[in-house]
Amino acid sequence: MKLRKVTAASAAVLALALSATACGGDSKDDSSGSGSGGGGKIKIGIKYDQPGLGLKEPDGSFSGFDVDVATYVAKELGYKPDQIEFVETKSADRENALARGDVKIIAATYSITDERKQKVDFAGPYLLAHQDLLVKKDSKISEATDLNGEKLCSVTGSTSAQNVKDDFAPKAQLKQYGGYSECIAGLQSGAVDAVTTDDSILAGFASQDKYKGQFKLAGLKLSNENYGIGVKKGDTATVNKVNAALEKMVSDGSWQKAVDANFGPAGYKNEPAPKIGTIVK
């Protein structure tokens, strides 16, 4: 009889515990994002140091085209602004960040390439950029061949400047700095004559208040860069949801508004919104 009473009491405690667990289940944080919103969060990889694309402001907020695209996509996936956590993902760590589950998606000037598609899946593309030159507003440089004898800047480890030297201007003087902000400062001071990388990145830097009206894009299309949103390999469901969100962003005008707001001051002549799944070689 005593044994029965203990067993019944234990069962009652167990039932109460299970009930409490069920009631509290919705409060668990979804660290990488489940794509369903609710009480969880979604972690999104972006750049922290690219004005106009992905920039962490001094007050801790974030700005840029990639940020606007990521915020719109997250909303369509069911997340409110306060459920979005932006995580810095440097170029060399993007594939690993997705594989580890550190982030759910990545929107960080992430060009879609065959090599990268072996490791991650991509939604998009959502922007077609091109390698270009940024020069002073009164510069006579208008073609890549004009760089012969001129000082051309890009960041250490980038192939952009070397490609220009190899293919267009063998007598260009290459200058490599630690970051694009240093290249832009060098352009302003006259230490270099041109800076090269994706036109979207150049436009973002040139759109900063301290540089407005000083620079111009040469308008060259030295390469095609199809920016996509990186997703963990095999996560087809998320790819499909993100693609649907991108299509809606274009159709309701939000995509063009984001382009104008982030790149407009530099006179960036953007390509039309690319068709989902279409890669321009």
Tell me what you see in this structure.
With about 280 residues, the chain is of the alpha/beta class. The protein is built from 8 helices and 13 strands. The protein has helices at about 1-25, 65-75, 95-100, 160-165, 180-190, 200-205, 235-250, 255-265; strands at about 40-45, 50, 55, 60-65, 85-90, 105, 120-130, 130-135, 150-155, 175, 195-200, 215, 225-230. It has a 5-stranded mixed β-sheet. Helix 4 links the parallel strand 9 (about 150-155) and strand 10. Helix 2 (about 65-75) crosses helix 7. The protein is globular and about 55 Å long.
Please describe the topology of this protein:
Elements lengths: L1 H23 L17 E5 L2 E2 L3 E3 L5 E2 L1 H12 L7 E5 L5 H7 L4 E2 L13 E10 L1 E6 L14 E5 L4 H8 L5 E5 L2 H10 L4 E5 H8 L8 E3 L7 E8 L3 H16 L2 H10 L18
Parallel strand pairs: 1-5, 1-6, 9-10, 9-11
Antiparallel strand pairs: 2-3, 3-4, 6-13, 7-13, 8-11, 8-12
Helix pairs in contact: 2-7
